[in-house]
Design brief:
CATH class: Alpha Beta
Helix content: 25-40%
Number of strands: 10
Low-confidence stretches: 1-27, 305-313
Distance between the termini: 27 Å
Strand order of the largest sheet: 3-4-5-6-7-8-9-10
Mean pLDDT: 86
Shape: globular
Structural class: alpha/beta
Order of helices and strands: EHEEEHEHHEHEEHHEHEH
Number of helices: 9
């Protein structure tokens, strides 16, 4: 059975949940997707957030990525995600967003969310989540409150001052560890120049996750040319390379013409050749849920598109 976790508040509307789509698996784990074609399995591990099941039978995908809110979610649904990952010998990366996806839920301001966390108002919720995660049989990493360094109102936690984010992250991890032995934790900034200010410390971080997307038209409009992986990744990588942690590209995607897509994907497959601490690249196989600046709209990162079907075999 194919189990897919959706991350789209716009699509889910008033349903507050982790939504699973069940479908029949197409066959044994032997096929390869365009993302892993030609990847020898050395160096960088490949992963995917995959709500359409494009990577369901790709044996070279070793990390399954799902998103959940920490409010209004049926934690029992994690059992299905665990089985899906386990059946494919994949590790499970769970991004936990500290809010609700329900449009019927009471919206919280940035300051309300922070105050509630530090007052312990969410401790029961954290313990229930982490206890459930620790009970799963897959190797589990929790990526909590990602892209905090955006410095805007995309997420309530991306409006926090660095010291507040650090306090909240540590509170989450400390509370989680009281019931969740064996869990790993990922600190995952967007990759802004200020991201180092939000680092909660080595004792609270097992892995670092960066966000990296290649959007051809945006790059041409902003820089006058297509960017290479080193040009996109280099500045943020250098800010965290000395922290001594494995670094994931926790959200990766490409959007552009055929030549651009081919180069973007090929460079990701071999990222560790130029960036030795990059240990995994996880493809975000979905339409962008937020509009990019200006008139660039919401790029479609999905690798199942016709353009990707033309990638070299």
């Amino acid at each position: 059975m194919l189990v897919v976790a959706w991350r789209s508040r716009q699509l889910l509307g008033g349903i507050a949940l982790l939504c699973f789509i069940l479908a029949t698996s197409a066959g044994p784990l032997s096929s390869q997707s365009p993302f892993t074609k030609g990847h020898a399995g050395e160096g960088v591990r490949m992963g995917a957030y995959d709500p359409y099941g494009t990577f369901a039978n790709d044996a070279k995908i070793s990390i399954e990525h799902i998103f959940i809110p920490w409010q209004d979610v049926n934690l029992a649904s994690l059992d299905a995600a665990d089985k899906y990952a386990r059946d494919r010998a994949r590790k499970l990366l769970i991004t936990v967003e500290p809010w609700t996806w329900s449009r019927n839920g009471k919206p919280e301001t940035s300051s309300e969310l922070y105050a509630g966390i530090m007052a312990g108002n969410y401790d029961r919720l954290i313990r229930e989540l982490c206890q459930k995660a620790a009970s799963l049989t897959s190797d589990i990493t929790i990526r909590w409150a990602q892209e905090m360094d955006l410095g805007n109102d995309r997420y309530p936690w991306s409006e926090w001052a660095p010291v507040d984010y650090i306090n909240a992250f540590r509170h989450f991890v400390d509370t989680c560890r009281t019931v969740g032995a064996g869990l790993h934790f990922m600190w995952s900034p967007r990759g802004e120049p200020t991201m180092r200010d939000y680092y909660p410390g080595s004792d609270y971080v097992d892995f670092i996750g960066l966000t990296l997307f290649g959007f051809q038209q945006y790059e041409i409009d902003l820089y006058g040319k297509d960017l290479s992986l080193p040009e996109r990744l280099g500045p943020s990588y250098e800010l965290v390379a000395d922290l001594g942690k494995e670094i994931y590209i926790a959200e990766f995607g490409c959007h552009g013409d055929q030549a651009y897509l081919r180069r973007c994907v090929e460079e990701a497959r071999s990222a560790s050749a130029k960036f030795s601490r990059i240990s995994a690249v996880i493809y975000f196989n979905e339409v962008e849920t937020y509009k990019w600046p200006g008139s660039h709209g919401s790029p479609d990162w999905r690798i199942m598109s016709k353009l990707f079907a033309e990638l070299p075999q």
